[in-house]
Amino acid sequence: MSNKHLINGKNQLRLWILGWILVFACACNKKFDEPPVYTTPDIQANLTIRELRAMHFPGNFEKILGEFTVQGIVIADDSKDNFYKSIVVQDATGGITIRMDGTGLYNDFPAGRKVFIKLKDLWLGDYANMIQLGAGVDRSDSAYPELTGIPVPLFSRFLVKGSLQNTIVPRQIGFDQLADSVQSCLVTLTGIEFAPGDTGKAYGDAINKLSVNHTVKACTGGSAYIRTSGFADFAAVKTPRGNGTVTAVYSVFGTEKQLLIRDTSDVQMNDLRCTGPGSKLLFSEDFEGAIPNNSLALSGWKNIAESGGKTWLGKTTTGNGYGEISAFATGQPAVVSWLITPPVNLGNSANEVLSFQTKDGFDNGGILQVYLSTNYDGGNTPWKAKWTLLKATISKGSISAIAANWVNSGNISLAGFPGTVYLAFRYDGADPVSVFDKRTTSFQLDNVRIQGN
Amino acid sequence: MLQLLGILVLFCFATVVKGQQTAVKKPAKNAYMDSSLMREKESTTDDLPVVGLNENERVSPLPSILTANRDMFTNMAGFHFSTMRFRIRGYDGENSSRQINGLPMNSPEDGTTQWGLWSGLNAVMNNTETSLGLYNSASVFGSIGQTTQIDLRASRQRQQTQFAYTFSNRSFAHRLSFIHSSGMHKKGWAFSVSGSLRYASEGYTPGTFYNGKSYCISADKKIDDRNLLSIAVFGAPLYTGKQSAVLMESVQLAQTNRYNAYWGYQAGKKRNANTHYANQPVLLIRHDRQIDNHTGWTTAIGIVTGQRSDTGLDWYKAADPRPDYYRYLPGYQQDPLLKMAVTEAIKTNSGLLQVNWDHLIDVNRNSQETIRDADGRTGNNIRGLRAHYIVEERISALSEYMFNSNYHSLLTDALALSAGFSMQAAQSHNYKKLNDLLGGDFYVDWNQFAERDFPNDPVVIQNDTHRPNRLLHKDDSFGYDYLLHTLVAKTWAQLSFTGKKIDHFEAVEIGYTNYQREGLVTNGLFTDNSFGRSVLDEFTCFAFKTGITYKINGRKYLYLQAGYFTRAPLFDNVFISPRTRDTQQENIRNEKILTTELGYTWNAPLVKLRLRSYVTLFSDGMNVTSFYDDGFGNFVNYALSGINKMHFGLESGADIQLSEHFSLNLAIAAARYYYTNRQQVTVTADNDASVIERGLIYTKNFRVGGTPQEAYGLGIQYQAGGFYVGLTGSYFRQQWLDFNPLRRTYTALQGLTPGTDQWKQVVAQSELPAQYTVDLSAGSAIRLKLFHAKNKKMFLFNAGISNLLNNRTLISGGYEQLRFDTDTKNTDKFPPKFFYAMGLNFSVTLSLRL
Asked: What is the interface pTM, i.e. ipTM, of the complex?
């Protein structure tokens, strides 16, 4: 073993090895630098979108040869996949759809971003009268030449990204103003609703991935289609039944007027419909068929004592029939009784409203409440179903007599509930031995009505 | 000496601690071997001092040994053919077996040798015994391919102290290495300590970096004359940037075949998106007992632990960030003007061919989104920057326990008995981790493919239904998460008979394998079969081999060997989509292998010749390949079964001493590797339990890809005194690409007329052109005085230049892309991807022996 020389060179050796260790240990833990935040460029547009659109002759394809730049704000992107491989850009003078051969475009060109479009070498064309910008013309099917989208590697050549979160105020217009001048513009139409056959339908065909047209109409006349791709995130969402506003990008297909929404929040239809003969009565019960002083047995209704064995009675006063219940003189520590309407179908109507009238008598704390259920099976154990308490005005405070006047419940909206529902009037009282615990209030019920359109 | 050891221990410790980062997932099944590995192997060999190689030469007393140690063919294959990813006899990695100190080092999970465990420990791993084919080793049953036994025992290392420095332009630029082996002391102790550092800020290929360390400490204690105890600890933490396979189109645009699509500039600095990390230390303990003069018994246990990982980009509802995505290249454009415009754009802005990190970060910085019911809490609506691009890290963390016991006895002068038992029990934990949010605030643990298919289902989109809508931050695990439990046990026995004229042996092995997937998350798409343990798969295997050698005389041998093996299918080839669920192939069976070999050996004083021929039949093989399918918009799994192959060929190696100083080397591999039947395929998607398609792949007589089937090498060496120089030329033919099964189906060919050019183009397998390389190596040994030493020290100088002619168009391998456009049937839409070999590359090593 001749490590003597090594010891002679020990210090050099040690330094050498330690040096290397340091170099190597430091070399691979460095954190990656981060680029500066994107700064928006300052570019001047020298053309308006209206002027750009004017360069196009219907049915033609025009290559733009001049050094033109337009600027606009993205009003629709592909974040919800209703727009596909395209974005729509609008300035104060008009809008244009740009075909881009990429997906996930909204990451770079989200709605609200300002973009500068360098037009030289792009092409104008129309797809069934819808004017678009593209990067070339695909003539592989000579009968139907079509614009091709801008290839991804050329995005930065033709499109320069500007500032984010700009807003474009949609134009408030009527159906009669849906003209080619507002193609690819964001428009808002008010007082419109889906045609009766198109309410409650899925926006698009999410299963077969097909686009679907639904007709929308205005109270004042006129119509258009809301067209939705089967690939849209919201394709399976159902169209609303009410009346209201739609904000959408206006598009045409031949002579067909199409509205392309960006998301379902673009459709706000919560008012009463204007079409048809006004509101219709979906259900009503005036209790005139009640047999006085007999347990109420109306067609389709359920009259069930959950506890205390007390059911609702039919009553008549001065020729007016109504229902009544009270725990008085039952001697039962708990009286819970249900009066349940027949099933009511809300599936073919909109903006349903419930109303009824009540009177109380000798009020000492008994309770009447109205509930709604979508899963009650129509059987004799309603307490097993799930019930939603509705907010209603119920007569109360008549301590020493029956209330003199009927109290209106107010209009209780049932608009949020789908399909078939049941309404229940649930009485909760008690007649125990102790005088302090008695809750024997009488309630009278009349004129139960559900209206909708 | 002790001080020196101290420094080394410190050094080793530093390397272990360093292993914090994260690394790469194990290469996907059928993935192509990282070219850096090949280069690594190559560099291992070419800085071996040739003078050293001759030192251990000795004549075996039992002249029937046919090991490949001194076999010019295997030498040439290892040193020169490896440039072209040559695989001996066309065999996959699982057909070679490797032992260290007697313990099996093939991965119980994928069968291949775990090279990475000891990468960089060249000096200490040199002490090997290599054999090819069915050779009867005394200590292991072996495989049908190469069997390599590495002996790390400190007492078996040549006594030496050596420093070496290598400079190279390959995957690393600098290597610093050290070995000290004490030899056996009088008190019965032997130590060996070695280590290396390898580094390149950028290797031969742009964007690749290399940071490798390795260490090995071993000690032997001779308890008495009959008992030796050995312990060894080694490890090789490695962190590298990977190189992509490339399209011809990209290479033409980049105007260099060093093109690498994996890197891009981030704030002006190169960053590689696909990195590999590994740190899996190994501990081995072995006991040798010499029962008597004729009988030895060896027992060893070992542990491997640690993790490997690979990073890559992941993205959510955003454009594909990979710059060589086919839609970004000019070839995708149909319009000639647009094709020109795109070409122009790329040529004027080479950044379009690289990852645009700044853009990815910019997108994340502007992606304000609200996640409803985040982390599964109703009403917990979190608003922030939702990353659309991230760097993910696919991790495989391994714990493996090995046991081996081996008995060898000379029953009579003519008859030897060997027997052994080995076992490997492993558990690997496979999952993904969020490595870098790239400027975003969080990522969400959703399956975006499921989200697209079922847009209104809040359950199926969850990667983990127990933790719905989970917001992910750096280092959070996400995506898939499962354990793989594997057990492999084997026992074998062998009788070897040595006669006057005839030697023969018979050996038998019985094996048991089981494995099981254990899902740690419930995938929303597969709530029934993603979580918990799968059914235990169990296999019993059997192997038998025999060989007979006719000793014509002391120099000429003729031998015939045959073997029949059954082998359990690999986990990766049985589980169709282990990332999402425990679904398995429909018919699971053992693979069968029948092999025979006829050989002739001639050891004359001036000529050493090996001549071999072999035929190997594989049947009932299975394979699963996964790839992203545009048509389904999903990861699609092709489960192939009933794969039959035939490998047959001639092999020759010769070493001819022309004169005192000149010698000639020759190696020939002339073979054919065929698929001999039509394979069964079952197609499923990651996001769908149903079978999409079942059918046949028309693969009869397709070639096995990934290696030249013919390779010829001729070398000339000059050696005098302490100096040598060698020049070797290699020529390769019949190198086929691994084929894409999609193109060879009934569906793919529907609508085409048989025999037309288009038909032929779809069906034809891609072949690389014939290629050749020239390599030069040289070395010398000089004795000089060092420091104030009395004795002279030996300086060794070695240099290797590969691809001396600087042929930059050499292609080392490639594959047909696993996609096909069934509408247009245009094979050029998804053309093959290639790996280019390096142009002129070299390494120069200076070693100092103390």
From this structure: 0.79
